[in-house]
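Hi X.,

You mentioned you wanted examples for the new student's onboarding notes, showing what a folding record looks like when two proteins sit in one file. Here is a clean example. The first protein comes first, with its sequence line followed by its structure tokens.
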Amino acid sequence: MNTRIQVEHPVTEMITDIDLVLEQIRVAAGGDSNSPSATSSSTAIPSNAASMRKIRSPSAPRPARSCTITRPAARVRVDSAVYHGYSIPPYYDSLVGKLIVHGKTRASA
């Protein structure tokens, strides 16, 4: 059993309406687990800080400042620590955020 929370957990949370981190804590404390049921679809879209210039490595992270940050509507979740004016350093993983969307079907998500 893998007891660590996975990077993809927001997709499961969107289709089950269960907070998986809270659920892990509840079960670890001896509580009962909720039984998830999914009747919809969700997908995650990563956002990376990458160079669009054709240099040696076109996907190499580049330091930059974020511009406009717009929060989406309901049934869309944004997982990111980036804020307006944030300086994105080139030293770490280039993932700066994830957009998680939800719909009744995969096509609508």
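Then the second protein repeats the pattern, sequence line and then tokens:
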Amino acid sequence: MRELWRSFSRLPQPQRRIALESLAAAFLSILALRALGFHRTRRLLCAPRNSARQADAAAVSTYSTLLDAVIRRAFPRSKCLVRSLALTWLLRRNGIDGTLVIGVRKQESRFEAHAWVEHEGRVVNDTADVRQRFSALDLPPAAGLNWT
């Protein structure tokens, strides 16, 4: 715990704010998924914002990197869905467009699903070839969900 605090205190002030927001986003994602299920959580955390601003790749990468570091330390068993929901919410909360993408594939006899985030068509929190490894589902916009 002491080392965690030292790492946090060494961050510049703007990154500390992002780290704290990341912790809140991860916690909110975990709680919402358990309490509300995927569809309602997606509607809550991934709804479009009216005031999207332009963000360069470095800013988006900072959010992604800090969120990943926080989740690895605070919620080490979290899966890609929690990380991606949290990142989408974090980006949108800060006026940056982020799109949650859910992909699927069949590997031998196993069905696999994976989640990642894209910004302006570029993969943010995964490898660039994730779209070649998984087929992205065509989900309706988060705000327009009427599923139960």
